Sequence to fold (131 residues):
Amino acid sequence: MASITEAELALAIERTLVAKGKMPEPEARPTARMVMSYFGADGTVLDNKLSSEDRDRFYQLEEEGLLTSEEEDATVSRGKTWRIHYWLLRKNRIRDVGQAGPAPPADEAETTYRSIEDKAWKRDPAPEPPR
Fold:
């Protein structure tokens, strides 16, 4: 299958994370650029090559189905087993999301409400009226 471009991934990010209010729109293209800088022309990236901050972004993209992770066991010297974790681009999903028509507009009201902490929504019970 042909390689995914940065533009295709950015569009998929806009139509998933941005559309759901999980990422601000200005971060879509830099996130796509960061992800593609790890993958390059390859279809996989070793997890231990990621910084912890970038790994968090990879997990966000995995939640939206744009990336997936796998692991395999490899036997090394003296019979020890190492578990190797790696990431894969879900090219079909990225392309499907990118070709699915215009992205729904981000609902500003929903984004605002989701940004308010739970404790702000809790109210003290109303005082009982005097008897």
